């Protein structure tokens, strides 16, 4: 059973979330201010964090900044703040997703499941995810091609991470859009642009994978031969 840590200062809101998430099969822990959130995170080691931004004691952004110093656990910001500046600030600090209130329970559960799948992908003993001469470092959002190290934008990292997890299998366009951009996203042009940039970066590897287009369906990452 996966554990979700809800960090929110409104008890009534937390109770409603607990009811929804427990019905979906999650275990739920809660914290009502920023400082106790860090204690709860260390105690429960959750699989996913739902984080409000407007918290007493320590702001949500400060909590996120502290978590990202030592953990890559998926964090979904859930906030009434809908300004682009607030969303960008949270994503740049390492949030995996951002949902503005109010939202539907169905959308929230879909997003939790999506980030939980990304966060649960296996890594090698050194923490890297490897395929031939290509490796991903989840702690630093870095792509390593041979001896070259490149910092990847979030979406490029998540796309390649998902394709590496499913190496050799077709991943549909709909699955890539939902897992990387979130529930309900349909701008496939963004997906194609990100795939083109990733191809240019990984084709530098002498023994690396290749991203193949499966026309009308999606993409497949072919392992090196």
> Structural class of the helix and strand makeup?
alpha/beta
Envelope shape: globular
Question: What is the CATH homology-level superfamily of the largest domain?
Answer: Response regulator
Strand order across the largest sheet: 2-1-3-4-5
**The level-1 CATH class of the largest domain:** Alpha Beta
Main sheet characteristics? 5 strands, parallel
- So how many helices? 8
Number of strands: 12
Q: Radius of gyration in whole Å, from Cα? A: 18 Å
CATH architecture of the largest domain: 3-Layer(aba) Sandwich
Distance between the termini: 38 Å
Mean pLDDT: 85
Write the layout of secondary structure elements.
Elements: E1 3-7, H1 11-23, E2 27-31, H2 34-44, E3 48-51, H3 60-68, E4 75-79, H4 84-92, E5 97-100, H5 105-119, E6 129-131, E7 134-137, E8 142-145, E9 148-151, H6 154-165, E10 170-172, H7 173-181, H8 188-202, E11 210-214, E12 218-222
Parallel strand pairs: 1-2, 1-3, 3-4, 4-5
Antiparallel strand pairs: 6-7, 7-8, 8-9, 10-12, 11-12
Helix pairs in contact: 2-3, 6-7, 6-8
């Amino acid at each position: 059973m996966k554990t979700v840590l809800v960090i929110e200062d409104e008890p009534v809101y937390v109770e409603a979330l607990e009811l929804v998430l427990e019905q979906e099969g999650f275990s739920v822990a809660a914290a009502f201010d920023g400082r106790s959130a860090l204690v709860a995170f260390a105690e429960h080691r959750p699989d996913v964090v739902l984080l409000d931004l407007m918290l007493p004691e320590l702001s949500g952004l400060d909590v996120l900044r502290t978590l990202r110093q030592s953990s890559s656990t998926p964090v979904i910001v859930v906030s009434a703040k809908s300004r682009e500046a607030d969303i960008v600030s949270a994503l740049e600090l390492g949030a995996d997703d951002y949902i503005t209130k109010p939202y539907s329970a169905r959308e929230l559960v879909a997003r939790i499941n999506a980030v939980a799948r990304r966060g649960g992908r296996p890594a090698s003993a050194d923490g890297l995810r490897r395929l031939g001469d290509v490796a991903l470092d989840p702690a630093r959002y870095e792509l390593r091609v041979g001896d070259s190290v490149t910092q990847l934008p979030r979406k490029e990292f998540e796309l390649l991470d998902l394709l590496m997890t499913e190496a050799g299998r077709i991943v549909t366009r709909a699955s890539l859009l939902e897992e990387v951009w979130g529930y309900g996203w349909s701008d496939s042009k963004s997906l194609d642009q990100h795939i083109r940039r990733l191809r240019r970066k990984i084709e530098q590897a002498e023994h690396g994978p290749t991203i193949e287009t499966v026309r009308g369906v999606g993409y497949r990452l072919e392992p090196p031969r």
